[in-house]
Write a structure and sequence with these properties.
Layout: H1 4-12, H2 15-18, H3 28-42, E1 47-57, E2 60-72, E3 75-80, E4 83-87, E5 92-96, E6 101-105, H4 116-121, E7 127-137, E8 140-149, E9 155-163, E10 168-176, E11 180-191, E12 211-214
């Protein structure tokens, strides 16, 4: 579990930072749907959801890890299998209970942030966007939108699945040129909860036995 957050934020969601500003074809219907989801998400004070992160090869997921995610505007907290990542709006804190280690970094603009907005806004950078149609995702009727890169970036395609009635992302699939697949399935979506003010903070005094490294 030592590197799972690194794998998730760099490999699984690399589509959001690897595109260039090449000529794009963006389907009008797909754009309308993604903009509605983006506006819906931004209108909330905070968001919580559970998710399952899956990896595998081809179109088959062979390993899954459950996780939870909290966000409030530009801040977030991600927890998955004993590993935690916090972004307080200024710095990223990666906390590993297994290794008793904390790494602290200031974003340089190249890091991938784990946020629903990643998937529904960053498509604008170097991807053709197509509305595919309606499909069933875990019993939910969803609009399927496919993204394909306009330049070579290691990714074949990305599929986004949006709950049409709630304007929420419910699933993301990424297929890479190395034949790997990464999937995030979202459930138990909650909004505007009463969150503790310390939710997105890091208290070094709580990690006295940890190795703390600031990059």
């Amino acid at each position: 579990m030592k590197n799972i957050l690194t794998k998730m934020t760099i490999a699984a969601f690399s589509f959001a930072i690897s595109g260039t500003m090449s000529a794009q074809k963006i389907d009008a219907k797909a754009k309308t749907i993604l903009e509605a989801v983006s506006n819906n998400y931004k209108a909330k004070d905070n968001v919580y959801f559970k998710f399952v992160y899956g990896t595998g090869n081809g179109k088959t997921v062979t390993k899954t890890e459950p996780g939870i995610f909290y966000s409030a505007k530009d801040k977030y907290k991600l927890k998955i299998m004993g590993t935690e990542q916090i972004y307080d709006g200024k710095k990223i804190y990666n906390i590993s209970a297994e290794d008793q280690e904390v790494t602290i970094a200031t974003p340089t603009g190249q890091e991938q942030m784990f946020s629903p907005l990643t998937y529904i806004e960053e498509y604008k950078k170097g991807y053709n966007v197509k509305y595919v149609g309606k499909v069933k995702v875990n019993g939910v009727t969803a609009d399927k939108i496919q993204l394909t890169p306009t330049t070579k970036n290691g990714i074949k395609s990305v599929n986004l699945f949006v709950n049409d009635s709630k304007k929420q992302l419910v699933k993301m699939e990424q297929f890479s040129t190395d034949n790997s697949v990464s999937v995030i399935a979202i459930s138990d979506y909650r909004i505007n909860q009463n969150l503790n003010s310390s939710m997105f903070g890091f208290d070094k005094s709580q990690f006295k036995n940890y190795i703390v490294t600031e990059l």
